[in-house]
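User: Thanks for the earlier help. One more: Transcriptional regulator. Can you show the sequence and predicted structure together?

Assistant: Of course, both are below.
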Amino acid sequence: MPEISEPRPEGEQPRSIRLTDPRALRAYAHPLRMSLVGLLRSSGPFTATKAAELTGESVASCSYHLRILAKYGLVEEAPGGKGREKPWRATARYTEWPEYSEDATVAEAADALMAAIAERYFERVTRAMERRHTLPRKWREAEQFSDSLLFLTPEELTGLGEQMGALLRPFEGRESDPSLAPEGARAVSVLRIAYLEQDIPHNKEAE
């Protein structure tokens, strides 16, 4: 299931929100909106004014896009604040959407969102590589840049994704509760991308 990452008054926020409306999928594909949701998950809640400081966009633009995100349930108003200085927070820690749909409109919107996110991943990795020379040696050695070519069935690939998710899950929640993170922990983005290599011949036709 695709995923991209504070306590609420009534308890812990949901782990993920699932988008199935093609209008919501298209709305979320906007680069600034994805940035705002990501920042709210890691540094929120905050106001449109703070959002403008973090993104370099205007307050009016951030306010508009936050309202669009709220329309589709990705963000919501947080307690406190006055007038235009009302704070916003993310409604969940991750976003999910259909990987496959019989509805062509949903499938098209989901594919467009995946393309936008892939572009965002590329930009973030490129930026990390440009700054990598400033990192201490232990972080440079710990970072991972590699790929593997595996011959798998759809069921095996699904199972592999579930195992990866299970390995990462114990580390979730540290961003909203710093007390869970050990000394020396820093924010690390872990990307999971697995796609079918259609240019490599195979011995048997996939069923």
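User: Great, one quick takeaway?

Assistant: The chain has seven helices and four strands.
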